[in-house]
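To illustrate this point, what follows is a protein record of this kind.

___
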Amino acid sequence: MAKKRTPVVISKLKTTPPEGLDKKKIKKETKKLAEEIGELAEKMYANKKFSLLIVLQGMDSSGKDGVSRNVFSQVSPTMVSAYGFKKPTDEEFAHDFLWRAHKQAPGKGEIKIFVRSHYEDVLIQRVHNWINKKKVDSRISSINDWERLLKEDNDTIVMKFFLNLSKARQKEKLVERIEVPEKNYKHNDGDWGERKHWRKYMNAYQDAINRSEIPWNIVPADSRWYRNYFVAKIVRDKLRSLKESYPTLKEKPQVDIKNG
């Protein structure tokens, strides 16, 4: 029997780094972690026994792109890719809600980053009452089944991160997108509209997290330097635990290396 987890209460979780940390040291350590992740990812790619799915969820401006860019900066583009979940296309709407997610699942040896994810269909749709409770329950059950399928049928490691950003910090970042020219491209009026539903979003996130079979990692996201370190360390530790090494030739190659 699986060990019962303590329910997550988002309002009681910290969004800031622990006191006393040296920002410069943490940023240096993050770079080292990223380098090791790159090496470990290459071993996973070489062996093709496992695949890795990274799920990043969080409110607008919580740093999903920043995590992708910093944590996986040293992974070869041939081994890692990202997919951003936006409003479904007409073709996607014509299929079940997991259809578009399954097409993006990583193959053996690959790392796939979901910037937002299949959870959007039990978050934004729930907040705006586009689906009822029965549909929410059904979809959460289907998500658990799908993630179990990836894990059991294809040895996919599913790692889920909720970037826990405070409402006050989000406002600062949204204002930056208006006042800093280099960040204007990130501005979207809709982000301010979604912000009005903050409490509903937190309730939806909390319920989805607590009903997930695969545990979520709750990331303090107010400070990007600590956010990136927090995620990088968890990913590095998981890849290390695979204890993979580069595969070696089992038979002598039938080539003439002297005269070739």
Remarks:
- The chain has a mean pLDDT of 95.
- The CA atoms of residues 4 and 80 lie 33 Å apart.
